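User: Can you predict the 3D structure for this chain?
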Amino acid sequence: MKRRLVLFGLGDFARVAHFYFQHDSDYEVVAYTVTQEYLQEPQFNGLPVVPFETLAESHPPDAFAFFAGVGYSKVNRNRMDVFAQAKSLGYTVPTYVCSKATTWPGLDVGEGSFIFENNVIQPFTKIGRNSVLWSGNHIGHDSTIGDHCFITSHVVISGNCKVGDQTFIGVNATVRDGITIGRECVIGAGTVILRDCPDGAVYKSISTPQAELSSEKLKRI
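Assistant: Here is the predicted structure, written as structure tokens:
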């Protein structure tokens, strides 16, 4: 029998997470929740939307699990805050590892993390709590991903790397082996990281003039 689950959020991540939980887990999503100020419609995606302020009464933590379907806004702080509030109320927050991800025995994944399909996670790695690994990443051996991180798609994190809490890494970024990335960093799409990154660092890829397209050229393509 599947355990009942409430999803926080009304955006794309919550909707997509619902699909994965429905088709590839032991959980059944039965409701969505948001704070009262964002509750505009009584239903979303065919399910009721209930106020987070009264969730513990309508869907008590001893009978329902909870998942924070929140993206990377404010360098993952919003998702981190929702996760912390749910834990303070006593909710179990499930960890999801897609059956189509490539993993090995001994993988250490923290509570509330969500790992999509086609991630290749090599041995001796550790994924922290409440982190998201979207589709198709490579996480090298002996690497550590911190808490509340968001790794988008087709990111390569080589072996023996450390990624600090709340860090965001954009699509197609590459991190050389042995690199330490601090907490609350933003690594832009396509960026190549060859040196350690201090806390709060922001990096973006360098576009060559030949690769840049003006709005007029885009209109003609």
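The chain has a mean pLDDT of 93. The first strand starts at residue 3 and ends at 8.
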